[in-house]
Amino acid sequence: MSNRIKKVLFICHGNICRSPMSEYVMKDMLDKRHLKNEFYIASAATSREEIGNPVHRGTREILRKQGISTEGKYAVQMTKADYENYDYLIAMDKWNISNMMKIVGSDPDGKVKRLLDFADNPRDIADPWYTGDFTTTYQDVCEGCEAFLNWLLEN
Length: 155
Description:
Elements: E1 6-12, H1 18-32, E2 39-45, H2 57-64, H3 82-85, E3 88-91, H4 94-104, E4 112-114, H5 128-131, H6 134-154
Parallel strand pairs: 1-2, 1-3, 3-4
């Protein structure tokens, strides 16, 4: 890897379930591998609906069981400037990508990807806001973060 810090922004609809889950799972993985100083990890929403709200209880609980705290995280909205400020803009599903493109306009540098596009079985991560299934979302997020991190370390 180069000496330059890699900046990753995880993005979902409201920034209270999947994207903060991805942010904190990735931070935990980096910490355990002693790589946290090589990355800047954050998360944001494509919508304004949850701006300023804390991480959803379901996400907080499943991460707490893994010893991961989301203390101090509140939903923020993605901006057009994020395209220039981050190396990777990682969406949870195709709908997020569609909404991200409305914000950034285009993706000339190929920064916009779905998290599970890095995994062996590319797919959307279901939104637990609608499914209520935070366990499956957590498993998908872990699979995606592991695959994404491995890809980052190889490329």
